[in-house]
Each structure stands twice: as C-alpha cells, then as structure tokens.
Amino acid sequence: MRLALVLAVLLSLAGCSKQKSEPSPSAERAPAAESTPAERASAAPPAPQPEPPELPTESDFEQEATEKITGSNLERELDQLERELIGR
Fold it and tell me: Has residue 85 got a pLDDT over 90?
C-alpha cells in the first residue's frame, strides 16, 4: 500500500516537472497587452451596466383593481380574467 502511494507521488511529481517546449498563448499576448501608465490613465472606465427594469408587483395594480372591480361586476371580471389566462 505504501509502495503504491509513494509511486503515485513520484509519478505526479515527475509529470509536474516537465516543461512545454511551445510558449503558452498568454505569453505571446503579453507584450501586446503592455501599456504605459499614461495610456492606462487615459483609458475610459467601462460603462456601468444598465439597471434592469422593475417587475410589476401586486401593489402596483391594487388601486386600479379597487376602482375597476366592484361587487356588481365581480363575476364578470373573474370570468374575463379566466378567459385571458386560458387564452380564449
């Protein structure tokens, strides 16, 4: 058991010590990405993300509902809402 553990550690260390002969893509881009402090200072900061629109809530429609729905037309309004929900 110990032999297998030691062997696994040695193999993982041997795999880590290998160096690639090809330069990494980030190393190729590094010289082009360098800029002087004056260029960094003059660069405009990124534009802030626009605020998402607020979603309507129950309280947004409460005033309209109390004015529109009365005791005499309650059944008719409920039927109309059901038809809208069903899609008829």
Answer: yes
* Predicted TM-score of the model (pTM): 0.33
Backbone CA torsion sign across 29, 35, 39, 40: positive
Give dist(CA 7, CA 15) in Å, integer. Answer: 12
The residue count of the chain comes to: 88
The range of the structural domain enclosing residue 75 comes to 60-88
Number of domains in the chain: 1
Q: Measured between alpha carbons, how far is 62 from 22 in angstroms, rounded to an integer?
A: 67
pLDDT surpasses 90 at 74: yes
Written as six digits, the tokens of 83 are 């038809």
